[in-house]
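Sample pair:
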Amino acid sequence: MSKLKLDELKRATIEEFKQQDKLPVTVVLDSVRSMHNVGSIFRTSDGFAVEQIYLCGITARPPHREIEKTALGATQSIDWCYFETVSDAINSLRADGYNIIAIEQASGSIMLNEFEPPLGTKYALIFGNEVNGVSDEAMQMIDSCIEIPQFGTKHSFNIVVSAGIVLWDFFNKLTLKPE
């Protein structure tokens, strides 16, 4: 077995990516502090072909070299827009028919492994600040909350790890295992 070379991966060009079918998911970053985290989420979102990213509050916006260090060009492939407040982003998504879901540890949350996203629905997944999580403002506006099961001593995953886990789960359930 040998590793594939970059030209053997047969990845889409940016133009092809823009035209392909997307996972019916918008990622919402609610005041994410680290530009490296923002860039990594762009790259992860590209990998799972999400529709778009909404950047809110203090979340940094491209173009910025600190975002590009980890995005590796994904800011060119993934559509994004900025909202001054997360409530403005949520109101826009709700008006467009999205199911608004926080990724957070909360009373009444649904464990990710138990969540079955219905086909034909558009989802907005809110990931929160590295220290404070999803804002109280956003939590008051969501339709539901998903929690990632954990089995160690730490109280949470890094936001990029959380995004990767949740986006893979949605991609798997909506694309690879359609009912």
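The CA atoms of residues 148 and 154 lie 13 Å apart.
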